[in-house]
């Protein structure tokens, strides 16, 4: 079985984003970029399934600028077999899902594992849209994945606790934080990754229109949080809430 893992190049999670002075977006100049943490978990899970003998090949796919090659090389250094880069800028989740659907038509993977969301936009849409476009079952927010013959059991985190669903392959799975802890790439594997195949494509190669459907009007910093107030007792708390208009 082949596994496809989409990965995204985002601002490193340790970096505090800065808004451009003109409010047109986030300033990416001289900012450290890395693989989206949820996608890193997806790569790790695909590799573990391969090591268990449930998969034969792991293909990583990135849709983004040319510099996303670095992100793909990181995934290859972790142990992925080959990579596909589809060069495009600022693609919305629906456009990403359409491109991944076309990749799936060519690759015919048994499983597509995605991070549940990207930390730069927190959309949490691509996996669900991809499942709808392909007409395949999906297991979102996975905390455990087990391949059993021609099906996969996914334990997913829901508001009430845990829910286990059994999906017929091919299927789409999105990962949550507690699924695993990604490995570090060793130096020998980093060197090997340089010679692994990395195909470069464009949306036009797949015949997909990625024209944006949304327009960003303005990007601003979140408001500074007000300092808290310490109250002496419940009566004072109720009085403060009434004064703020949040209690009758």
Which secondary structure elements does this structure contain, and how are they paired or packed?
Layout: E1 2-6, E2 9-11, E3 18-19, E4 26-27, E5 33-35, H1 37-51, E6 57-64, H2 68-78, E7 82-87, H3 93-107, E8 111-115, H4 126-134, E9 138-148, E10 151-158, E11 161-168, E12 171-175, H5 187-193, E13 198-201, H6 203-206, H7 234-244
Parallel strand pairs: 1-6, 1-8, 6-7, 7-13, 8-12, 9-12
Antiparallel strand pairs: 2-5, 3-4, 9-10, 10-11
Helix pairs in contact: 2-5, 3-4
- Contiguous helical run count: 7
CATH architecture, please?
A: 3-Layer(aba) Sandwich
Q: Indicate the structural class.
A: alpha/beta
The helix-strand sequence is: EEEEEHEHEHEHEEEEHEHH
Question: How large, in whole angstroms, is the Cα Rg?
Answer: 21 Å
Kindly provide the name of the CATH class. Answer: Alpha Beta
Describe this structure in words.
By secondary structure, the protein is an alpha/beta fold. It has a single domain, classed as HUPs (Rossmann fold), CATH 3.40.50.620. 29% of the residues lie in helices and 28% in strands. The protein is built from seven helices and 13 strands. A nine-stranded mixed sheet has the order 11-10-9-12-8-1-6-7-13, sandwiched between helices. The protein has a two-stranded antiparallel sheet with strand order 2-5. Helix 2 packs across helix 5 and helix 3 packs across helix 4.
